[in-house]
Amino acid sequence: MSEKAIHIIGGGMAGVEAAWQILKANVPVIMHEMRKGERRTDAHQTDGLAELVCSNSFRSDDYENNAVGLLHEEMRRLGSVLMEAAAITKVPAGSALAVDREGFSKYVQEKLLSHPLFTLDRTEIESVPPSDWGDVIIATGPLTSSKLAQSIIEITGEDQLAFFDAIAPIIYKESIDFKVAWFQSRYDKGGLAGEGGADYINCPMTKEQYYNFIEEITDGDKADYKEWEKDTPYFDGCMPIEVMAERGVETLRFGPMKPVGLTNPHTGEDAYAIVQLRQDNKLGTLYNIVGFQTKLKYQHQKDIFRKIPGLENAKFARLGGLHRNTFINSPALLDEKLRLKLMPRLRFAGQIIGVEGYVESGAMGIMAGRFAVAERLGRNINVPPITTAFGALINHITGGHIEGAGRAKTFQPMNINYGIMPPLEGKKIKRKDRKPIKSARALEALELWIQEQN
């Protein structure tokens, strides 16, 4: 081996993709994966690389009309080992890309182990590796071991690592009815949106609507916590809405739904309660429902939240949730090439940087691997344009959030969606045509980027 190996900690989706990109450039890889034999995490069932822990689906494969399908196609064009394995082990799933999970893991593992420059180490890495290791990619996922997590905290600061993922539903702005809703901050304070104290979207409720809403929330089906999540505390101020509602029918009206300091310009009347939405990305295409983190089941969330006046036709970029997760505050800690600013020899990839899902994790592994090997070989590499799915995810992770007062109110994990990509420019485009046009724009931009790197 003429080149010193690049170390990768974690053999999940991000780790294997990073490894494959590096190996293709003929640079050695040492992968550290602690699962061995009977040794497991709380979620894993095997010691195989690229094990699919939950679903066996990579979601929609339609790259013209679905953002995750677009990400599939972008990954294929960069030689994704996960997409290659998925094509070999695919099972019937309509327009979705689903796989035989055992065959999938076996294919990926055998492909990596058969490469002469790949080494698999089955020991646990309990701390951030020393400098003599050189370049390291940390891709340990949402269940990063407690010892390694503690070591990361010691480097980055305790407030830069989250152990609980408290997420309010996120809605596409274009699906909100502004004949009912309006922009305004309480007492017209603020002005971050550039509209002079109009930072929030407000949806008013009458007394009857509010009481019906509370009843729906408290009666709604809740998702169960997994065993390892049960003792994980909430963030301060991130109590589930259904728990708040159970503490008293007026609790939410004196919390996130308080109606004070706001006037409905459509009617001039005071509302009994108000649901507020706050801008969630710099592009202004996504808004989250303030204070609405929840354990309600997904379909029930859709049914309930579409009863909020102004959100009857809401389209969700993601639904609310509360679950165990480990992720770093990437916008503060990482540069655009996924390097830790405080220690640039370290890169992070996968769910630990604040993406959700198999595909997104793998995609960020591809990027981390490409950035790392280009740097090792002295080659210049640019970040893909924000108009691509790759570039949009990196932008969200490293700077697409909204600055705010609290950790839980600013950066949260995100799936790929068209809302984190720039709006289309030019003449007004019909809604049904926007997704195919954004996808075509993304693939054209990616092809130009690929040509520039070669």
Description:
The protein has 454 residues and is an alpha+beta fold. It folds into two domains: 290 residues, 3-Layer(bba) Sandwich (FAD/NAD(P)-binding domain), CATH 3.50.50; 151 residues, Elongation Factor Tu (Ef-tu), domain 3 (Beta Barrel). The chain is built from 13 helices and 17 strands. The strands form four sheets. A six-stranded mixed sheet has the order 6-2-1-7-17-16, with helices on one face. Helix 2 packs parallel to helix 10.
Write the layout of secondary structure elements.
Layout: E1 6-9, H1 13-24, E2 29-32, E3 57-60, H2 67-77, H3 81-88, E4 90-91, E5 96-99, H4 101-113, E6 118-121, E7 136-138, H5 146-156, E8 161-167, E9 170-172, E10 182-183, E11 200-205, H6 207-219, H7 241-246, E12 273-279, E13 286-289, H8 298-305, E14 316-318, E15 321-328, H9 330-333, E16 339-340, E17 343-348, H10 358-376, H11 389-398, H12 407-410, H13 431-453
Parallel strand pairs: 1-2, 1-7, 2-6, 7-17
Antiparallel strand pairs: 3-5, 4-5, 8-15, 9-13, 9-14, 10-11, 11-12, 12-13, 16-17
Helix pairs in contact: 1-10, 2-10, 2-13, 3-4
